[in-house]
Amino acid sequence: MSREITRRDFLKAGAVGLAATSMLGSVKVFADEKEDKKAEIPFAGKKKFAGIGSCRNVTEDIVYVGVSDRRIQLFENVYPVPRGVSYNSYVLLDKKTVLFDTVDRSVTGQFFENLTAVLDGQKLDYLVVNHMEPDHSSAISEVLVRYPEAKVVCTKAASVILNQFFACDISDRSVIVGEGDTLNVGNHTLTFVMAPMVHWPEVMMTYDSVSGILFSADAFGSFGALNGNLFADEVNFEKDWLPDARRYYCNIVGKYGQQVQSVLAKAGGVDIRTLCPTHGPVWRKDLGWILNKYSLWSSYTPEDKAVMVVYGSVYGGTESAANAVAAKISQAGVADVAVYDVSKTHVSELIAEAFRCSHIVLASITYNMGIFTPMKNFLLDLEAHNLQNRCFSFVENGSWSPVSGKQMREIVDRLGGCSVVGKTVTIKSSPASGDSTALTELAEAVSASVLGNSTSQKKVEAAVSKKWVCTVCGYVYEGDKLPEDYKCPLCGAGINAFKEA
Ligand code: FEO
Q1: Regarding predicted confidence, which is higher, 10 or 361?
Q2: Rounded distance, CA 95 to CA 129, Å?
Q3: Of 28, 25, 14, which Cα lies nearest the Cα of 155?
Q4: Which is the closest atom of ligand 1 to the Cα of 218?
Q5: Closest CA to 365 of 343, 332, 346
Q6: d(Cα 310, Cα 390) in Å, to the nearest integer?
Q7: Nearest to 130, CA basis, from 183, 69, 68
Q8: 431 partner at 20 to 30 Å CA-CA among 138, 144, 148, 350?
Q9: Which residue has the higher pLDDT, 477 or 296?
Q10: Cβ 247 vs Cβ 280: under 8 Å
């Protein structure tokens, strides 16, 4: 006779002793010498649905078991993902078996199909939770039920948040790890690297020295479903994936550039041969290319010397002025000018473009004695994402009391390391013949700055070229000025420990 069993009952019933722990210096080394045995899965059927799995080997003994979701419309209920998204999960088949992260609840059927196919009846020994945001942790409860001997390896913060989201108390089967702790699972030894705020506070990454794989959580991820091709070198990444990778990074992690820089500094001393993120393709070639993109994005350095023109217009006058400025900038020799209607372009696209471009021209009507609402939202989102080191120019429109230029500039002035190019142009309702000179002068100032023959451009280059190195731990801070109250995010040292590089 069956009885209803709660998730907590399952967890308690399946609890086994924690891995033996010993202290080695300040880090913990975990090992488990128990004999392997076949799992006794508490389900009549091993698979959630019939199927053979859709897995791919990353290495001989590390297998991709993640799933792509092509039905999703909005990632995090905010970001349009017309190309879908993948939730990446990996299994290491060693003396002990290890699962790295799980998937979103929308795709658990395919996930368990993959997992059971790869484990092929073996028990699961460890579930490493690098990131417990629900798009990666929604299947944890079911994993723990299906594999009652599995222990959860995670940070203390992850265990707390996991319980908050899923009422999933793992205290009797967790292995809490910190910076530099290791776990031996046979031929492989895993090292845990803390990565707080990339993208949540509980995030860590896991490094396997045998394969040279860094399981990098959200870092190096991308929007976009995987279509059989798992590796970045199996697709035309720069053409087909880079815009979504940039949009993913800038909108999801962009605010935390300093924390990303910390992780990049740690990665600099490690032999990383493959990056296994939790979204998007796996990187096994040309790692320097994507690392360089991350270095630019996280230091708020423009990726391209390029211009984006963003306008907010109701009856077309501001749009006409924006088009005129864009044409004149282009005529002056600037290639690939990008023009966006702020009302028609999703703000996540605009944020990504702002991270790419060195120069941003803003043209807005005056609305309710302020900035046009979609333009204001865009600018406040830029501020929230900590954008820095850009050149801004302004066009304002107001039929009787234009104020949007002044108010846009007030927001831009709050961004770090930014400068203003040219004089704000004011139009009334529609550009008149008398406005042509001012619009031309603004376009000339922008194009001269982009093409490198103005003091404004030199100011931007100077603003992004300074670096200070922490003499205690090697962390590198980049920006125009080291703040007086700055503390090293890695070791906590004050500014006296920093030397300009
Ligand atoms: Fe893909 Fe921060 O979760």
Answers
A1: 361
A2: 20
A3: 28
A4: 1
A5: 343
A6: 14
A7: 183
A8: 350
A9: 296
A10: no
CA distance 415 to 257: 14
How remote is the CA of residue 157 from the centroid of ligand 1, in Å? 15
DSSP H helices in 299-372: 317-331, 347-356
Q: Extract the tokens encoding 14.
A: 């399946």
**Does ligand 1 lie within 6 Å of residue 88's CB atom?**
no
Distance 112 CA to ligand 1 centre (A): 20
- Answer yes or no: are the C-beta atoms of 345 and 313 closer than 8 Å: no
pLDDT tens profile 270-302: 999 999 999 999 999 999 999 999 999 999 999
Q: Which two tokens stand for residue 382?
A: 């830029």
Distance 133 CA to ligand 1 centre (A): 5
Secondary structure (3-state) at 284: coil
Q: Which atom of ligand 1 is nearest to the CA of 252?
A: 2
Check: pTM over 0.85? Answer yes or no: no
The letter for the amino acid at 182 is T
Q: Phi-psi category of 121—alpha, beta or left, where left has phi over 0 and alpha has psi -120 to 50?
A: left
Round to whole Å and give the CA distance between 142 and 148.
10
168: CB partners within 8 A, 6+ apart: 7, 11, 140, 141, 144, 162
